[in-house]
Amino acid sequence: MTFLEQYKSNLHQTIDIIDMVKVQQAIDLFTEARSKGKHIFVCGNGGSASSSSHFVCDMVKGASFNRPERFKIMALTDQLPAITAYANDVSYDSIFVEQLRNFAQPGDLFMGISGSGNSPNVLRAIEYANSVGCKTIALTGRDGGQLAPMANLNIHVGVPHMGRIEDAHMIVCHMIAYSFMEA
Q: Whole-prediction pTM value?
């Protein structure tokens, strides 16, 4: 079997472990947030930052355009000036939580994406989100790290390979977004 065939085979096995019940629960939380006019915040680092931005784009445009109900959603990863200011002047661990302090309210929805589940800035953000009464979702990999038990809902991709974790996280994000786009 070639490398590409093996990667594809392993990816199919990874996709098969995605818990569809939990993905539906996430869709339900997004539906509730939209119907109640609540804000939604998404963040992650590295590839997970890109997934956050991609997902929010899908929700802002694809799942909201020309629809009577729209998502009030933002990727905390997209606030580059704020991120660099906090990273430089305070700490990298504060780049998401300090943004949440400006915006998050009880009943809002927070989603943290972390392949390792141990990104300190995502952990601080979910801790704060929980403390102010936000509903929280985590997309995690490997063993779930510290993030998994901190979330109200954890969608866990329990494989060691970061690329396949990120692939699966993006598939989950597309499942959520396209459930609104194609419904």
A: 0.97
